[in-house]
Write a structure and sequence with these properties.
Two copies of one chain form a homodimer. Chain A is α+β, with helices and mostly antiparallel strands and 311 residues long. Chain A contains ten helices and twelve strands. Chain A has helices at residues 64-75, 98-113, 124-135, 143-148, 184-189, 197-215, 219-225, 232-235, 242-251, 273-289, and strands at residues 4-14, 23-38, 44-50, 82-89, 151-157, 160-165, 172-178, 194-196, 256-259, 266-270, 294-300, 307-309. The first copy, chain A, is globular, with a radius of gyration of 19 Å.
Chain lengths: 311, 311
Amino acid sequence: MVKQFSAFAPATISNVACGFDVFGFAIDGPGDIVTARFSDKPGITISAISGDEGRLPLKTMSNTAGIAANHLMNTIKSAVGIDLQITKKMPFSSGLGSSAASAAAAVTAINALLDYPLKHEELLPSVVEAERALCGSSHADNAAPALLGGFILVRSTEPLDYIKVPLPENLHYALVHPKIEINTNDARKALPKQIDLFTAVKQWANTAALVQALNSSDFGLLGRSMVDYVAEPVRAKMVSHYQEVKETALANGAVAFTISGSGPAMFAFSDNADKAEKIATAMNAVYNKYDIENTVYSGKIKHDGTTLIRE
Amino acid sequence: MVKQFSAFAPATISNVACGFDVFGFAIDGPGDIVTARFSDKPGITISAISGDEGRLPLKTMSNTAGIAANHLMNTIKSAVGIDLQITKKMPFSSGLGSSAASAAAAVTAINALLDYPLKHEELLPSVVEAERALCGSSHADNAAPALLGGFILVRSTEPLDYIKVPLPENLHYALVHPKIEINTNDARKALPKQIDLFTAVKQWANTAALVQALNSSDFGLLGRSMVDYVAEPVRAKMVSHYQEVKETALANGAVAFTISGSGPAMFAFSDNADKAEKIATAMNAVYNKYDIENTVYSGKIKHDGTTLIRE
């Protein structure tokens, strides 16, 4: 049997309301699988992608898995040929960190194939580089939780400085992904270039309060702190029926509700599993009513990030 | 003996680098004492102020202690005559929350004199009102720690929403107050009205990281997070020899160093008492070298805020 390793990387939710570009967490729901094996062709090749409806590029340096893999091989100064096969098991252009997931799965599988030249956390710069190549500015709010799991605060990207934030045991999410296309770059362009100091103060009070809420399992404070004055006001307008879905989630017991990354996915936090499932069902019903194809998930934070799949 | 109550309110350090308008903590150093007793004159009068070199107004509604006291009496709908005597035991216009301290001491003493119509924390709106009257916008980053002690995150002022953040047991401060006059209103006017999104992201990543650092007693992270892109760059220029004092503090083992409030006081954090004292001595030496009158303090956070003095 040909030696190969496969890794699964989870979907991630970034920004988390007030924490634009600095917060992200991994969920125990969908994700991507990348299989790596040795190849006679030099460098990184991508021989197959499934689950993408033929829309993602096979060309190495146009694909986040390829870019991350290439960065890793440069880091460890290896020229060995490696072929990747990507199985998309999550929607892309969804605001769920699909590009980070493919990149994280690719480098994790390659690192295992090469018998661990790097520690798992040392793979992060390669995943961040893939994100940078994709959207022009390096940010790690999907990359870090996709690779490392948990709820991550990215204090700085250059140099990279991130912290895993402790979480309440009973923190659950409910997620809805309506099939509406939003381009991440367009969503970024719509953001204000400048914000007034008064608004900025409110935003950084909230990021501080969110971290305190997670440390002290204070769901009331978590809800009050998850107010976004910067991205949500702009991006919510790009998602059909946003307000109705938000009101539905809150009416069904959500602690907080906001857009996931640049959308169109949205999520709610809840303090128990049953409520999270109920919220997911209610959000699903809203989009069903408008005949908009949508998928819902609910569950917990995934604490271990990208993991190898036993084969 | 005439029935009277005296309360001591501590000096406070607000902003704490990245946390402009949202963080503040009380120190176990200097502070103000206010004595309250019943008076035949209706309303609030201030009969004496000492320790102010004759510079603070006796007129009730021009003095923060008077404004806070008046707000408290309106809140509890009492018209009883009360006289205040204020003993300033800390410098004012120093960036150490002198106005909040007088206000907090006044309402605490009055609340005791009237046999506790309000809980201690219910006095906060009166202290915040005094701050609002003084500087035009309501903020509680000195008021809340002066009254309640500890390290406070003010998530919102309207409505008032604050949280005490847990602290490392071995957190110490070293403080220097050079006798340089800086007007708080001038210091606020010098602030940027707008900040670019990129800078704002760095600032709110830091406020989040500072809270995480305090919760996890991570002094390395505390130091990295105490970077201010908004107020310090403007205000440091108003304080003579700022950079030299900062370098001196850091060279003597400070975890972080920044301006206190709107200055001119400055402070450093340290992870032990001896180091804090050494830093204070070194900062004192810098200003002595330039023949600038200065006072230094070092110690711990004051956890209990404003307290009654046993007489």
